[in-house]
């Protein structure tokens, strides 16, 4: 019995990987074995960095809120503690935006919790 190979599926798989490798440099974009490894590694980085991106943004928001709070003589932890005590449910993303782009609104929040 002759050997059976599914050329259609393997060609489609290679085509899909090479399409994902579009924009890579050198042989990484057009040689199957090199492109396959490059795409797998890129997917690992993408998965990892989707998580890291969330951490980085949270850290940035905390820095901005801290800077805004310190202008009013409070630390970040005091500010957040008083927010919770006064049942003001604004998340860090919104607070950071107010501290950076709308200082008057941020000042109003600080005055409300003092």
From TrEMBL:
Name a GO CC annotation attached to this entry.
ribosome
Q: Which UniProt keywords apply?
A: Ribonucleoprotein, Ribosomal protein, RNA-binding, rRNA-binding
Source organism's superkingdom? Bacteria
Q: Name one Pfam family in it.
A: Ribosomal_L20
Which Gene3D superfamilies does this entry report, sorted A to Z? 6.10.160.10, Ribosomal protein L20
For this protein, the record's PROSITE patterns field holds: RIBOSOMAL_L20 (PS00937)
Indicate whether rRNA-binding appears among the record's keywords.
yes
Is rRNA-binding one of the keywords UniProt gives this record?
Answer: yes
Among InterPro entries, the record links this protein to:
Ribosomal_bL20 (IPR005813), RIBOSOMAL_L20_CS (IPR049946), Ribosomal_protein_bL20_C (IPR035566)
In UniProt terms, what function does this protein have?
A: Binds directly to 23S ribosomal RNA and is necessary for the in vitro assembly process of the 50S ribosomal subunit. It is not involved in the protein synthesizing functions of that subunit.
Which HAMAP family does the protein's record reference? Ribosomal_bL20
Name the family the entry cites: Belongs to the bacterial ribosomal protein bL20 family.
Q: What is this protein called?
A: Large ribosomal subunit protein bL20
Source lineage: Bacteria, Pseudomonadati, Bacteroidota, Flavobacteriia, Flavobacteriales
């Amino acid at each position: 019995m002759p050997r059976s190979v599914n050329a259609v599926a393997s060609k489609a798989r290679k085509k899909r990987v090479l399409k994902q490798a579009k924009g890579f440099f050198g042989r990484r974009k057009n040689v199957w074995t090199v492109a396959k490894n490059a795409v797998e590694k890129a997917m690992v980085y993408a998965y990892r960095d989707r998580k890291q991106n969330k951490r980085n943004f949270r850290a940035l928001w905390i820095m901005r809120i801290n800077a805004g709070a310190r202008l009013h003589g409070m630390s970040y932890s005091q500010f957040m503690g008083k927010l919770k005590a006064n049942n003001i449910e604004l998340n860090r993303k919104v607070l950071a935006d107010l501290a950076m782009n709308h200082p008057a609104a941020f000042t109003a929040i600080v005055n409300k919790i003092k």
